[in-house]
């Protein structure tokens, strides 16, 4: 390790998949649940890729695995909700990351879920944005969804974060930073 920066010095690169997997594990990302109402009912999936794209007009992007029920629901409804999870909500992230065939994600949730703006909305999350599907791009094993934000609600608190294959919480934010 370099004494100055603490970084591993460059070596011969790993193969594209193995090297990318290791690289992606170093990324830190907020954790969200995307929900939609499709032909087979409510659907939701945990995602760690949500990015603001534009403020005027407000557009965000999120990525869903090809073949997911949630992707099918979003394409059917042409709208979806993106729930940013708060610290302490790893249980929600785990529930909505179950295998695609699991239809029990909303059953026994212990939280109120209402159909708002055409999408199932889970109560008590850090923030939620309602989006109309603007476009979708198939990239590798995922589909990038671009959503025009039509409304949002934001609560107080710190986000749940995914890093190094584990859910984590930020520490040390002041009250002003967390709100």
UniProtKB/TrEMBL annotation:
Pfam families: Flavin_Reduct. SUPFAM superfamilies: FMN-binding split barrel. Residues 24-169 form the Flavin reductase like domain. The keyword Nucleus does not apply. InterPro entries: Flavin_Rdtase-like_dom, NADH-dep_flavin_reductase, Split_barrel_FMN-bd. Keywords: Oxidoreductase. GO terms for molecular function: FMN binding; riboflavin reductase (NADPH) activity. GO terms for biological process: pyrimidine nucleobase catabolic process. This is Flavin oxidoreductase. It comes from Actinosynnema pretiosum.
């Amino acid at each position: 390790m370099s004494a100055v920066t603490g970084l591993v010095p460059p070596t011969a690169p790993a193969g594209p998949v193995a090297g990318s997997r290791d690289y992606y594990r170093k990324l830190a990302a907020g954790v969200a649940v995307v929900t939609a109402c499709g032909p087979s009912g409510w659907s939701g999936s945990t995602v760690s890729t949500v990015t603001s794209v534009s403020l005027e007009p407000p557009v965000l992007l999120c990525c869903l695995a090809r073949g997911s029920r949630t992707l099918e629901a979003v394409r059917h409804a042409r709208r979806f909700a993106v729930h940013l999870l708060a610290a302490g909500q790893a249980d929600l992230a785990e529930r909505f990351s179950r295998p695609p065939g699991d239809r029990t994600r909303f059953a026994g949730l212990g939280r109120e879920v209402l159909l708002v703006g055409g999408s199932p909305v889970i109560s008590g999350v850090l923030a939620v944005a309602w989006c109309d599907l603007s476009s979708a791009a198939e990239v590798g094993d995922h589909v990038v969804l671009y959503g025009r934000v039509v409304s949002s609600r934001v609560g107080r608190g710190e986000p749940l974060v995914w890093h190094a294959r584990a859910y984590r919480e930020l520490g040390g934010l002041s009250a002003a930073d967390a709100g």
